[in-house]
Amino acid sequence: MRKTLLTAALAALTFAAFAQENREADSLRYRYGRQQVSATQRKPGTKYADTLDTGNPGVKVVLYSNGTYRYVKDPSVMAADSVFTEFWDTKTVNPYRETPDAIPDRFSIWVVDSLDSYACPNQTTPRSQFGYRHGRRHQGIDLPYPTGTPVPAVFDGKVRISDYIGGYGNLVVIRHANGLETFYAHLSRRDVNSGDWVSAGDIIGLGGSTGRSTGPHLHFETRYKGAAFDPAWLIDFETGTLRHRLFKIRDWYFNPNQRYVQKVDDEDEIFRTDEEDRILAEEQAKKEAEARAAAEAAAMRYHTVRSGDTLSAIARKYHTSVREICRLNGIKETTILSIGRRLRVR
Ligand SMILES: [Zn+2]
User: Fold this and answer.
1) What secondary structure does DSSP assign to 162-181, as a single string?
2) How close is the Cα of 142 to the center of ligand 1, in Å?
3) pLDDT bracket for residue 9 (50, 70, 90)
4) pLDDT confidence tier of residue 33, bands split at 50, 70 and 90
5) Looking at residue 39, what DSSP letter applies?
6) How far, in Å, from the CA of 174 to the mean position of ligand 1?
7) What is the mean pLDDT of residues 21-48?
8) Which CATH architecture fits 300-344?
């Protein structure tokens, strides 16, 4: 049982490393013939070899010719998701006809899961914050962004708007599977079209100063069902890190003047749902399994069998027992050791 858990955890770690490696090299659209964003984003020489089904009909394993693999969401399943069909409009900034009352008082969404990732637009001190400014509502955050600097998609998703829209100038809006939308405005160039599927980190355009702007910067918004909230609830721009994987949203985040506040909130514990408890417990168990697997991997030692070696001599040398060596290598005390064989001794 323990071994199975470790094997699974090691596989997860290995997968994480491969996923990272392949992050730039691919995205759903290459395998499934969707529109390419930019040919330069594909790492040359990485080819798809095969696709395998998993237990989940929405998830496939893509194998690469270089021996690496990655889990991807099947776009045909994703495309059928109502998130990408309802209130879908390629021209209107806020296509949701729901009233703000439709948003629950408190709810949680997954920002990234094991298949989705995140890319920070720019690790920097924001130039202008969310909230009212000179009597005007500011629905996003302004990040210093020199003209021509590539702008990445922050999360995986589908481009809803890529257009020149009034004060926004060149605007790209991406909708994500969890219902969130991210806005990227004042771009000098747009490199995506409405309907494109993008992965976190894909370049969607270049920074600029188009529209109502007093100088090059990226105006970045996060919205849920059309309602903007301070992106700082989600992203710590100073460090470039995501604050949450499971993001708990309160209705008052959507108050137009509500900036992010660092808080220690006991309510969180009181109002946590069973589902959130279950998810958090799973996360914790996964982290612990990964830590155990990593510790075990770090402690591994090997011995290469030389002429004259015996199991008991090897056991003495590494301060372990014959039984333990047999267990680690799946051999018997009577197994003949061939010269050059690598034995795990720890
Ligand atoms: Zn702005």
Assistant:
1) EEEEGGGEEEEEEE-TTSEE
2) 5
3) very low
4) very low
5) G
6) 17
7) 37
8) Roll (3.10)
Which residues line ion ligand 1, judged by CB < 5 Å? 142, 219
Beta bridge partners of 172: 162, 184
Q: What is the amino acid identity at position 125?
A: T
247 alpha carbon to ligand 1 midpoint, in Å?
A: 23
* Mean pLDDT to the nearest integer, 30-35: 28
Tell me what pLDDT residue 109 has. Answer: 84
Which of 251, 231, 249 is CA-nearest to residue 240?
231
* Nearest-angstrom CA–CA distance, 19 and 5: 21
Residue type, 255: N
Distance 143 CA to ligand 1 centre (A): 8
Q: What is the DSSP letter of 232?
A: G
Topology of domain 82-262, CATH: Glucose Permease (Domain IIA) (2.70.70)
Please name the residue ranges forming H helices in the chain. 2-22, 28-31, 75-80, 267-271, 274-299, 311-317, 322-329
Q: Long-range pairs for 35-41 at CB < 8 Å and ≥24 separation?
A: 35/193, 35/195, 35/196, 35/197, 37/191, 37/192, 37/196, 37/198, 37/202, 37/203, 37/204, 38/191, 38/202, 38/203, 40/203, 41/202, 41/203
5-14, 158-167, 180-189, 260-269: least confidently modelled range: 5-14
Residue whose C-alpha is closest to residue 171's, from 142, 225, 207, 129: 207
Distance 53 CA to ligand 1 centre (A): 44
pLDDT grade, residue 143 (50/70/90)? very high
pLDDT at 45 over 90: no
Q: What is the pTM of this model?
A: 0.62
